[in-house]
């Protein structure tokens, strides 16, 4: 047992402040899972809830299995040490009913809610969950079947795409993007075709003028980026008819660059600066606005072509009674939002909600959390809800925010943090690190103190030091090792990589041969380093 931890007050609040909603920001190795388990045991022991009215949400199935094991062990340990008869009885009852406690992922939790109230949710009671791989295959099938149908029976749709220079194959990523963000409303508004006569005139005028200022001969080191862009523009307009909007747009897209200017390759410095300024004036005043207008004009036609494919995908899912991960979240959020009676039912069913790795969860999870804990049953805007005191406990580390590709959103994390603080909740920070030795902690603090801001903003978490409690050990290998590579001629990347790999391999080999001593406690040797 380690005493005098710098964040001891926060750790005590986790197990004692049970009538307040808490967000715990816990750094790497600080015991995130342990703090969650301690909170769960404390809630049971103090009679704040039953084991079957508690739901613990994890990010992965593996984490859920680990959480269940640790929760059971902690309950058994608390039961063996407890002397108060009433508390001991609560812990004993929790152990006997442990299987009735929900511990799982957000998706499995939503699936359980939907299966309990399928009529109100508007889902088939026999629905099955669609994993990522099967969902990807179904999406591809839906897209391919839709394209085949268009080619056979809707040639006019293809003709509309041809007018704006788009091929159906170019839209598969757009189709995937719409399916990835099903909660985002797609704008469908017709925009008239833009008049491109002015940008064409300005462009031709610039190209004619700039061509006269180019050096008479190719510079010894070749044209710089701006010179090459001017040459490319003049070649293009001599070969293609710029009166054709598609040809003009293609040229504008080619010119939408940030060309590097090498003044030594011009006749003089002033000429280079003059042409560069004129190019950026043309780009900002005419080229970019024209491209924006053209894209807005094309948007309606692209959306009109893709949305029927989205509908076909939804139809295939309905026919098979399948719900993907996004469906589970969206249907659950809608169920709770639109049905106050259902919301009341599940709030009684799950009085306490605990969420792990909150920084990596889908933004719709925030809505579900607040609907399940908010006191105002008829309020439809989740941001206006006030969680019942003590009903919500979330753990996360914004510095480990890595799952944006899975729709995780740091803005939502910060908003939940703000809402909890404004509605009587509290944010705690755990900085003690049990995993790393002092040398590693010192190195990390020195590096990241200048990288993370002092206060959190919409882009980045605030700096929080790692307060390590493990010493380096006498005669043990510890700290950060630095490999110095010999100089490589012309900095050849392949050779550098090979040399570095050999150094690392030799280091690992020496470790396997017993050349280094690793300091671990008997408990660490038995269980491994965990939180």
Structure description:
The protein has helices spanning 8-16, 32-45, 61-81, 85-96, 106-116, 118-121, 132-153, 155-163, 172-180, 197-213, 225-239, 245-255, 269-319, 325-338, 340-349, 363-373, 410-422, 438-448, 493-512, 522-527, and strands at 22-26, 54-58, 102-105, 128-130, 322-324, 352-355, 392-396, 426-430, 432-437, 467-470. With 531 residues, the protein is α/β, with parallel strands linked by helices. A six-stranded parallel sheet has the order 3-2-6-7-1-8, with helices on both faces. Strands 4-5 form a two-stranded parallel sheet. A two-stranded parallel ribbon has the order 9-10. Helix 3 (61-81) runs antiparallel to helix 4 (85-96) and helix 10 (197-213) packs antiparallel against helix 13. The longest helix is centred in the middle third of the chain and has 51 residues, at 269-319. The radius of gyration is 31 Å and the shape is globular.
Label this structure with key terms.
single chain; 531 residues; alpha/beta; 6-stranded parallel β-sheet; two-stranded parallel ribbon; 20 helices; 10 strands; 8% strand; globular
- Backbone CA Rg: 31 Å
Mean pLDDT: 90
Please give the count of helices: 20
Spans of at least 5 consecutive residues with low confidence: none
Helix content: 40-55%
- List the helices and strands in order: HEHEHHEHHEHHHHHHHEHHEHEHEEHEHH
Termini, distance in Å? 14 Å
Assembly classification: single chain
Strand content: 5-15%
Query: Largest sheet, order of strands side by side?
Result: 3-2-6-7-1-8
Task: Indicate the structural class.
Answer: alpha/beta
Q: Based on DSSP secondary structure assignment, what is the total number of beta strands?
A: 10
Q: Describe the main β-sheet briefly.
A: 6 strands, parallel
The backbone outline, from C-alpha atoms, is: globular
